[in-house]
Design brief:
homodimer; 456 residues; seven-stranded mixed beta sheet; 17% strand
């Protein structure tokens, strides 16, 4: 386990296959390590070049005068075994094999050969056929997409594992734009050595990771995966999206990652038993992750809706009911207190409809009453920021009420640029925001289910 | 029908209840009409003010020296009947009653009184209890949210009707930010005169409207709605999202719009028979609208997937299968031609996987082969723009291949700011883009179902 730490916090990295040509993977990786936040030493290795970006280039990892913790290997597959041999002699602790052309195209012999060499030298390997990893804390970044094309998220507490490299990079890019923060991104591809189970175990002990997300199409070792996930899901929520759930996609899975996709029902059952939360699309993975990493556990299933738009209140009521929740009935004392402090046109039912005349003060009264009322377990708060009388301070009110973490609160808010700015502020302050009530209610459901499971 | 035209193209508008106070609805509406794109005359009416923004203010609509086509009424409910009487004497053609306080709070008598006066004078009325309308072509804009808080979409071909005013304004704001273009936005609230059926009929004959979207919680006159929708759905696709589908939300519906929400099953059956396409959330309404307003009708149910990311290809395969489509099997001739023109690592199955080494040229060959192949009915095109070798010109390639409209093409693309810019370019050129394969496949399904229905 401890050795996996070298992947995320290496003191020095050799980029084997670093290149002067801007479109080559070895160029982009070397450049990203130099220009990004990584603080350690980076050595380019390429026998055909003297220097790259004015850095002296080494013909082999063995010629690097200082110790090398990690090797990032991006050279044609057939050269990988001898390179690993050199890495072993150099004392390299871990290697990321970006190169493809192994078992995913039926070349299992070459993969086994490389695996044997790595094992002999005690090198832990990620890959082959991966995009590698990104750690926003240490700045380790082997993602070979240029930074202008693909954003990098800031440090946070969500980790994402992916069998597919492209999916990992799309998610990083999307999270970066949304302002969602992350702990670690890892693509593990053919999983010749380090597999999804190892990574789940590692991340479950990582103090910077509060929730583990994973996209995969099949598992290498089902029994190991199940037993690790079952234990670790008690330490950290594990949220999974499985690709290849239909008959039609099985063939595609086998030519993508070489795995057997398996029956949808078998997987769902296994997930449930292992305490894994299953998401139905990638966006939902992060809906769940943001809610589970920020919100306290609910005591029961009663949801109070507060809104400033009647239509959204009704859509939310439908969503709450469809997820099997009850609508909370606030106590008489709360309602009388609230009645005395908000205008008469405010509808004090569930949803509480503050109407298009809502103000920050009205939101404050309503949220605080719902948080204090013992008949309310969760709050689904709709805040449509467009209305004339609502000042941006409502964001401070929400953050303030949520910061005590007495009850789970999720926010629904939708609109254009003005709304996006306010939603980003909420997200930055640990309040998950959704564009539609359905996603908010489904996220509360994931939180509720996880809380119930972890009590068992 | 023709008189409804005055709502969207009035030569002059009186804002009755215009105000100097920035937070008053009558202030925002008057200001938006002055500062927006509306080219006609705008008259403020308010007996307590001499001028607003240096414009002379009239004590009554009767004192305006020139003809008035439309009155926007934002004064307390109890003054509405006498104001309508004055409008009638002035010869006003149509009125939007923004004011609330009528049947939605049980005040049916006042609503009936106002209705009788309007009818007597032949004034068509939108409302009461509405946010009114926005027409991006004529610039008529009675949406009382400030422009800095809520964006306005550019002229296009999607029209949106909403019983709920807040929902309408949120959608406008969101479409504005996304760059989705629109023809007309109308909230009809209590529908004292003009109702959803009238508006559907009007928009079905509007040459600028290619698709009609509607959000509602209940209909005023079910029989009229059904018979109009059934006829008009043959002229234009009608996409509906119904709020209040669960037992829990019925009570909320009645206090929001005073309607009976009705059984979910009853509505779904009625929609199907009337040829209305039902969406399950507001985002999906516009997924469908963008696809149906831009894409040709498919000849059959066979979908070809083209991708540069294996994972997304598999997720798309699942989504295609779940929507009841078949995976297309391209003919030997197409495949041989393609094999000769793309690198050997390209997987020529369904999905066609161009891999992370994809280039614009490879996309061009693959799309063009799929469009020409008679075994392909629709194309689901995944384009992850982050990969190093893919230049932005791929967008031109896609637009070019799609512009002939030989077959429906929808694009899946997800990521951060760089990707968003390219997606916006595609959307601007009539290529619908989705962030996840599920939404893309569901949109193709809506298009396919509508095509089949309209053949009947």
């Amino acid at each position: 386990m401890e050795q996996l730490d070298y992947f995320f916090n290496p003191k020095s990295i050799a980029v084997i296959g670093a290149s002067r040509e801007p479109k080559k993977i070895g160029h982009v990786i070397f450049r990203n390590l130099l220009e990004g936040d990584y603080k350690g030493k980076v050595y380019p290795v390429n026998p055909n070049t003297d220097n790259i970006f004015d850095q002296p280039c080494f013909p082999s990892v063995l010629k690097i005068p200082k110790p090398v913790d990690m090797a990032v290997i991006c050279i044609p597959a057939r050269f990988v075994p001898e390179t690993l041999e050199e890495c072993g002699r150099k004392g390299v602790k871990c290697a990321i094999i970006i190169s493809s052309g192994f078992s995913e195209i039926g070349n299992s012999g070459l993969q086994k050969e490389a695996g044997d060499i790595a094992r002999k030298h005690g090198i832990r390997v990620l890959g082959p056929n991966v995009i590698g990893l990104f750690d926003p804390y240490s700045g380790v970044d082997t993602i070979f997409n240029p930074r202008f094309k693909q954003q990098r998220p800031k440090p946070g507490c969500i980790s994402f594992l992916s069998q597919s490299g492209a999916t990992l990079s799309v998610i990083m890019d999307w999270m970066g734009m949304k302002g969602y923060r992350a702990s670690k991104f890892v693509s593990y591809g053919n999983a010749m050595d380090v597999d999804e189970a190892d990574l789940i175990e590692y991340l479950s002990h990582d103090r910077r990771t509060k929730v583990i997300c994973i996209y995969f199409e099949g598992v290498v070792n089902g029994r190991k995966f199940y037993s690790v996930a079952r234990k670790m899901s008690k330490r950290r929520p594990i949220i999974a999206m499985k690709g290849g759930l239909t008959e039609s996609s099985r063939a595609a899975v086998s030519s993508h990652t070489g795995n057997l996709a398996g029956e949808a029902g078998v997987y769902s059952g296994m997930f449930r038993q292992a305490g894994i939360i299953q998401a139905s699309d990638l966006e939902q993975v992060f809906d769940f992750a943001r809610t589970l990493s920020t919100q306290p556990k609910p005591k029961g299933d009663r949801v109070q809706i507060i809104t400033d738009g009647g239509g959204f209140g009704i859509i939310a009521t439908d969503a709450v009911a469809r997820n099997g929740f009850r609508l909370a009935k606030m106590g008489d004392r709360s309602l009388q207190g609230l009645r005395a402090s908000v205008p008469e046109y405010v509808v004090l039912k569930n949803p509480i409809d503050l109407t298009g005349n809502a103000t920050s003060e009205m939101y404050e009264k309503a949220i605080s009453a719902a948080i204090r009322d013992p008949s309310v377990d969760m709050i689904l708060l709709i805040c449509l920021f467009q209305i004339p009388g609502l000042s941006p301070e409502v964001v401070d009110v929400i953050i303030d009420e949520c910061s005590r973490k007495a009850k789970p609160v999720v926010v629904v808010s939708s609109g254009g640029s003005y709304t996006e700015v306010l939603k980003k502020t909420l997200e930055d302050n640990m309040v998950p925001c959704f564009s539609c009530p359905k996603r908010a209610a489904e996220s509360l459901k994931a939180l509720y289910d996880y809380s119930r499971n972890s009590k068992k």
